[in-house]
Amino acid sequence: MKWGNAETTEGSAANSSRSRPWRFIIQALPVGPVFASLLITGVILAQECPMTAPLTVKDLQDGIVGQTGTVWTIAPDCSFTVARQIGLKIGDPYKQGRLTPEQQAQLKALLDRMAVAEFPAQLGSPQVNARRIAISYAGKEAVLILPPGGGDLSTLRTRAGDDPAGRMLELADILKGMMGD
User: Cβ(58)–Cβ(64) under 8 Å?
Assistant: First the structure.
């Protein structure tokens, strides 16, 4: 009789262990819609971003070790990174985030107005220990060469006016304001 009870107990344990996965699946079902909504939200956010390609702005100073400065990058999904460049090496990002909807709208207006793809490849003449503002977007790269040091971007931007150099400085200054230094 005990043997029969043991079999029955084992049999019922086996049956209950078979039913347990269904219980966990049923309990996990409410989590599925949450993950689905997060995925859909991420897709919608990526669709709202005005970027069609990564936008990279570098503010670099030439010197003994090569170029040193800050690199701001905005990905097509409007996530961003800020990193340091020393020589040819760009370090790991020390700041990461996502542009707010207001910043995305500001960036869209800025990109629509500036026609980044039409910037000349190089503005300014080569000089020793020059400061360089480099913009890369949609396969196009433009470099603005400035005297060494040169001051903060806002001051340089004010002096430059609305020519291509002024628009490059404006873009760099606004991105620095959005993402920080």
Answer: no
